[in-house]
Design brief:
single chain, alpha+beta, 2 helices
Length: 122
C-alpha cells in the first residue's frame, strides 16, 4: 500500500500549525490575572472610591461596580379577608360589612390615605 501526500496538503498542515502556534503565543503573552483599579461612585455619598477587580478569562473589557442604596418603601400590598357567619345571609353580610369598615377605619387612623384603599370581591 502506497501513501502519497501532495505538496498542497503539506503546505496546509504547516499553515495550520503556524496559525495554532501564533494563537497560543498571543494568548500566553496576554497578562491574565492582573488587577485593574476602577473608580466607583456610591449612591449615598459623593466620594469616588477605587475598587479592585481581577481581570480573568479572554481579553476584553471587564466592568464592575458597587453601590449602597437606602430608601423607604412607598408601597404595601395587603390581602385581607373578612369572614362572618350568621343565621341569615343579610345578617352575615351586615356583620362582614361592620368588620371591613372597622379594618378600613383602623388603616385610615394609622395614616393610610383613603385614595390608597381598594376593596374587591364579596
Amino acid at each position: 500500500m502506497t501513501i502519497t501526500v501532495s505538496p498542497r496538503r503539506i503546505a496546509m498542515a504547516v499553515l495550520a500549525i503556524i496559525a495554532l502556534s501564533a494563537t497560543y503565543l498571543i494568548g500566553a503573552t496576554h497578562a491574565v490575572g492582573t488587577v485593574v483599579t476602577t473608580p466607583t461612585r456610591a449612591a449615598t455619598t459623593s466620594s469616588t472610591q477605587p475598587a479592585a477587580y481581577p481581570v480573568s478569562g479572554s481579553p476584553g473589557i471587564n466592568v464592575g461596580g458597587r453601590a449602597k442604596v437606602a430608601g423607604s418603601p412607598d408601597t404595601l400590598r395587603l390581602d385581607l379577608s373578612v369572614v362572618a357567619s350568621a343565621t341569615s345571609v343579610s345578617e352575615a353580610l351586615a356583620s362582614a360589612n361592620r368588620s371591613a369598615s372597622a379594618v378600613q377605619k383602623s388603616l385610615l387612623g394609622s395614616g393610610v390615605q383613603k385614595k390608597d384603599l381598594q376593596t374587591s370581591g364579596l
